[in-house]
Write a structure and sequence with these properties.
68 residues, mainly alpha, 1 helix, rod-shaped, coiled coil, DUF1192 family protein, DUF1192
């Protein structure tokens, strides 16, 4: 049986995304999926950052009130 480079079963599909990985093996749909995945992760990171900033601001306000 000959190797078919277009056979979907013979392609190794990396799970998730690794920074710096070879993108030439990905289809346009796979690249779109990676972009969506990374955008969701960026949104999740921004939300976590906002939560930490709010906690820090609340703690700072609390301790400034307590030290006056």
């Amino acid at each position: 049986m000959a190797f078919d480079p277009f056979d979907e079963e013979t392609r190794v599909r990396p799970s998730g995304h690794e920074f710096g990985q070879d993108l030439s093996v990905l289809s346009i749909d796979e690249i779109d999926d990676r972009i969506a995945l990374l955008e969701r992760e960026i949104a999740r990171l921004r939300e976590a950052k906002r939560g930490k900033e709010n906690s820090m601001a609340a703690a700072s306000a609390f301790f400034k009130l307590g030290s006056a």
